[in-house]
Fold this protein.
Amino acid sequence: MTSTTLANSNIFGWLLGYEAKRKQLLKKAPEGALRDYLSVPLPDINTLIDKVEILAVDFETTGLNAKQDKLLSVGFVTLKKQQISLKTSYHQIIKTKAQLEESNVIIHHITDSQKEQGQALAIVVEELLKALAGKVMLVHFARIEKQFLTEACYELYGMAPSFPMIDTLVLAKRRLDKRDVSYDPSELRLTNLRRKFQLPEHHAHNALYDAIATAELFMAQMSKANKDGKTPLKDVLL
Amino acid sequence: MDTELSEISTFIHSIPPFDSLPKQVLAQLVRELNINYVRKGDDLPPKGINEPRLYILRKGAISCLSPDGELVSRLGEGDLCDAFYHSDASALSNSQSTVTSQLNVHTDEDCLIYSVEASVLHEIGKRFPSISDYFSQNSAQRLKTKMSQVNEEAILSSTLMNTSVSNFYQSPVASIDAEQTIQQAAVQMTEQGYSCLVVLEHENPVGIVTDKDIRRRCVAEGLATSEVISEIMTRDMCTIDAKSNAYDALMMMTAKHIHHLPVTKHDNLVGMVTVTDLINNEGHNAINLSGIINKANTLSELKEISHLLPKLQIRLAKLGSSADHVGKSVSAITMAFTKRLIEMAEYKFGQAPVPYAWLAAGSQARQEQLAHSDQDNAIIICDSMKPYDDAWFESLATFVCDGLAECGFIYCPGDIMATNPKWRQPQKIWHNYFTGWVETPSPKALLNSSVFFDLETIYGDVSLLNKVRKQLLIKTQKSTLFIAHLSKNALNLRPPLGFFRDFVLKQNGKHKATLDLKHNGIAPVVDLARIYALAEGISSVNTIERIQQAAGTPSLTKASAENLIDAYEFLGMLRVEHQAKELARGESPDNYLSPKEISKLEREHLKDAFKVIKSLQDARQSSY
């Protein structure tokens, strides 16, 4: 699959709406995790955001290019009724063949030997899809999660769904853009945004911690933006 | 993947009682946590949460208010909120779904809050009772647990276990040659004041002889005292190496039923340690120091000795002595200084014209003095004194007060000293003073004079004060008005609510940077004890003794008395530890603790102590 068709499928998905795309793909999907995922309806875009079930997700990868680089680890946690439940938290290192570059090891603290003890990509993606069914995905800087997950789905199932997503970075960016004042892009980093909301310092670059950190940030953002509790999902969707 | 949430684990682990949980259990607990974000001004529990939970504040600030709007506590990062927690598992299953609280809890800032369902903690509590105890016990019970731990630790960490026997032995050893007679041994014991001698044969120790041996093996047996000492000595003598710890020495002596144990270093005799040395070792320092004071002949010698007082206090604190013990030791030494100065004055100015007594007031009288405190004293003189006799007493007062000041006991800022003519009076005037205070009390007069309700004779005719006190106590027991005024004064000093972040949280919700242990904790207890004593006619002035004797009277229940003593001892312990640190740094000791130097657990215990004190103050207030 080329990058053009990937882009096309996204536009196609966006035009149709993720729910229509889900139904369409469900007919073609092979038996298994993807089909199971696709068989659960997604929330309507007019649902109040407080009522939507959310899965905060974070990936650690060997690089930024979903075509060449590999998924290293996946972390996620559920955000339901405005509450994160650590019982639902999941973290898994993935066993890949690619040698880890030293610079990446420094960032993720994942070494080759740890990676050897990891799970196969298929199993981890299955777990993620199981948890993601019927939920909206919450990430910070969606490009990584979106592209790597899509790529993984093509690799494993030959097709990829359109995942409804909320991006805390985009939410912050929209607010800043509205003010029409120039700002430093570094303000949009997860750590800096958390600091702005006076959330505690967190240990960055562990997939689960980043997922939790993103979910906390989203709750803080909504405490300001959704004071009356009447914000619909579509207002925050990517 | 337990390590994945290690950061949250570390945070939870820093909070008592979870600090006692093993890592694995902690990891289980962390997986049960929920995270909520509560906007500033909103109430707890967060919307939609009905089941009982324990809340743990991760970020932000929370206020807990009583139903009538009074601030009960303010919570910051790392504080627990158990307002919506049921410690009783059975009550939980009965009430099922909803939780109610006596408190109104609302956020003062945007808050990130962790929470765990009560049922989860109950399960953990089944295996780790320290967790369930923590939440089911009230302030007084928690404090009691803490103080019994402290007392246990004090025994374990006492000198005997941790100090080598070399710190206790007396050297050189009193010895006698085996060829000497029993009579010569008795003479030597009498002259040198020893009850035990080591017997030498060609300079080598071969046995030991005690005064008991002379009684049992010589006199009782009708043996001539002209016999050689080797006839009655104990040959197979036990010895202990100087490197052994003192506890082992005590155990050896107890096992063998002996009171004296020669100490050796590389098999050479270097000293002798006695049971008394070991058992009384803590008091021994104070007794020793008193002994040196009594032998001092000049003021400059006394001044020299006074430098040892802070060292003694540090040592006592390091030994884990209770504040009560430290107070008594330091007070005993101040008393020795005062007595010695009075003796010097009597030598200088001649004998007193009429009988009198030197009185200590305040903390010294209560035996609660610490190093570097100021002097509070007075003189009570026999009614037979003539006006011109006062010149002698004035000289005495000046000499002693100046001397005490030289020795580091600063002049009383309130001029409660024998040098003040007002406090240097015959018995009948003292009697009038007390009658006036009791019969026509004004809060202000009482504030200044309450120090005189804690009086003790240091030197001279004890009966002078005793008579005045006896009549005073008869009056105070009957005078509810007086007790009411005294109570009103005492209630001016209220303990704080607790802590908020690194501040002390006062009753009015304001913050203070430091905790004044004396005025916000210790003094309120001392005041309460004084009230109980005066109301119940108790003649003791020591705070703990007063509380113990008031226990079970209409003024104080036995249970409350125990709680109050626990609170008092805990506060005292913190003060002694705090001052020992300052003294060790060469600073003058004070009562101001920065919350930063108080551990989380100590803060909890302090809060408990404050609660106990406040409840007894409230009880006092409502009785008038």
Q: What stands out?
A: The first strand of chain B starts at residue 34 and ends at 38. The mean pLDDT of chain B is 87. Chain B is about 50% helix and 15% strand.
